[in-house]
Amino acid sequence: MDKFIIEGGERLYGSVAVQSAKNSVLPLLAASILTEERVTLKNVPRITDVACMGQILCELGAEVRFAGEDISIESAHASNHRISSSLTKELRSSVFMLGALLSRFGRAVCAYPGGCDIGLRPIDLHLNALKRLGVEIVERDGMIFCTCEKLRGAELVLDFPSVGATENILLAAVTANGKTVIEGAAKEPEIVDLQNFLNAMGADVRGAGTDVIEIAGVKALHGTEYTPIRDRIEAGSFLIGCAICGGELEVSGVRAEMIGLLLHKLRENGCKIHTKNDKIRIVSEGRLKANRRIETLPFPGFPTDLQAQAVALNSTCEGGALIVENLFETRYKYVPELMKMGADIEVKGRTAFVRGVKRLHGARVTCGDLRGGAALVLAALGAEGTSEVLDLSHVDRGYARLEEKLQKLGAKIRRVRM
Ligand code: UD1
Description:
By secondary structure, this protein is an alpha+beta fold. It contains 14 helices and 23 strands. Strands 21-22-1-23 form a four-stranded mixed beta sheet. A four-stranded mixed beta sheet has the order 2-14-16-15. A hairpin with a 5-residue loop joins strand 11 and strand 12. Helix 5 packs parallel to helix 6 (163-173) and helix 6 runs parallel beside helix 7 (189-200). The chain is globular, with a radius of gyration of 21 Å. The structure holds uridine-diphosphate-N-acetylglucosamine. Uridine-diphosphate-N-acetylglucosamine is lined by residues 23, 26, 93, 119-126, 160, 162-165, 186, 304-305, 327-328.
């Protein structure tokens, strides 16, 4: 497993263009199975989650071609509706293939994704919604068997605005008989992107980005070429990295409203932020002030996927910060690693109390999940001395060429292949 060697203490200067959003590309790839025609996604990041979704599509019988930054999927000959357990376990998001497979074949089988490194992550909302659309579901020996004659539209109310459940319903409902209404839908920008992509394939979806999404079922979808939205979490990670290290950075590809609350918090820290169209410029000078409180919430709240990076930032700010993680039960597993670098953090249930220290020091730390791993990398960039960040497989799931991008900004980071 690869590791990073990072010599901390360099300020970050320059500009960085962020990649397409992982959390958009994955459901879009799932959606590609909805048509027999070719679908091309442009500017897709070479991250392992995308590779894994590609493997799942191949397993279903689709032809998947990578050409530079583009990926094309042709599934005219796809006939398999079963995703093997090993792939479901590797990529939890494969669960939203259920909706797409049911739409295409009227059947779907996959392993129960189970708990993971950040929490229990049940899929009851997904399964209940699919049942309401006419799907029969049998759970046996850790597997989920779904069948339906024909999906039929329904009025659905989500108890919680789950991103994955909203996407699964969209994928199932686009070709259902009649109209589906989702009340209490997730409002993340990636849901809007999925709506736009499905409509480009001939679907009739509206309302994404609000609480209520309406889907009028259509007979069939067709191929399309599409450029997914850019990754607001990658953008946020770079901005936080610059806040930690000091310097001046321009991040392009993401509009301010996609990470509005992060920008507000960075200003609270004392960073200067300027935004124009899809460019965000940050200037970070001197010691920053801690945020008094950050609470993760569904969009447009503070993203849980930036919680760990925000904790890393606050660990060297002046004062103390209270962080509340509302989305996932066990999303502080990276904290003991951060403490090896000298951070002073106390975790109680969903809350972390961060007492800012002057400086972190280099240490040997291990990534345990994607965003926690990113937080360790950013903390090491700002720390005094050399750090080793081990087990990059987690980071590689969501950040493409991270070290190259950081090196261009002046960071001393290199990958050692193990
Ligand atoms: C997606 C993102 C992930 C992000 C998360 C929250 C992708 C590929 N992943 O994950 O990066 O951290 O949104 O913004 O887009 N829940 C249930 N029952 C369900 C479904 C969810 O109780 O059936 C709970 C979960 O346990 C969690 C909360 O709802 O506590 C949010 O989950 P959800 O919005 O579904 O996140 P994901 O789609 O898994």
